[in-house]
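Narrative summary of target 7.
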Amino acid sequence: MHPEAKRPVKTVETAFELLEIIKRNNGATLAEIADEHDIAKSTAHRHLQTLVRSGFVVKKDRTYGIGLKFLEYGIHARRIKSYRLAKAKTKELAQKTAERVQFIVEENGRGIYVYRKTGENAVHTDPGIGKPCPLHATAAGKAILSQLPEERVGRIIENRGLPRFTDSTITDEATLYRELEEGRERNYCINNQENIDGIRGLGAPILSKDGDVIGALSVSGPVHRFSDEWFEKEVPKLVLGATNEIELNAAYAREV
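Modeled conformation, tokenized:
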């Protein structure tokens, strides 16, 4: 690989950093954006005008906001056949369990929420669609890691670390590998208050017919409802049944 290929394109990097500022502040003026990024207003203005012309940023009065052009790209990203198949099962599983169900995929060493549905008893705690989540501290994330080659898991840990979110978060690499091995043997992983205090979850991986991990489906809820026989026996059956159906449909259903 040419050495220059590893260096980021500074103008592109700056544009995305400005977008992040706009999103984080739910809209911002030119002066606010330039000040927060510590660049000249003229430089920020050139970037913003380019983003406005392309539809990724909108300007109302003096305030810049995120444009709906991103919605078009997000919808396109979710059109992958296996992702669409997961949407129906996410909804179905939420209805059956009455809890919160999510389908996530791995991207750049993080979990990304693609679909999420809440049952009538669900606790609303996790980020919105498209938001990242830690792989090592969530049931679905660990389910994905359990199916990746150890070398790949090692690179993810090296790049992302094992940050602590609660007292129960696994921050020791050897302990995490043991958990992943256990999850691989039973085909599902458990999150025991590792991302959010008081919340447990159970997640299973979804594999392609070639054995590559597509993503993972998980159910999560409060500890007092996720600590009895229902969680230990019925929830695994429901989650594994749903992931198995997705795998079969992804492998044999015709593209529409």
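The two ends are 38 Å apart (CA to CA).
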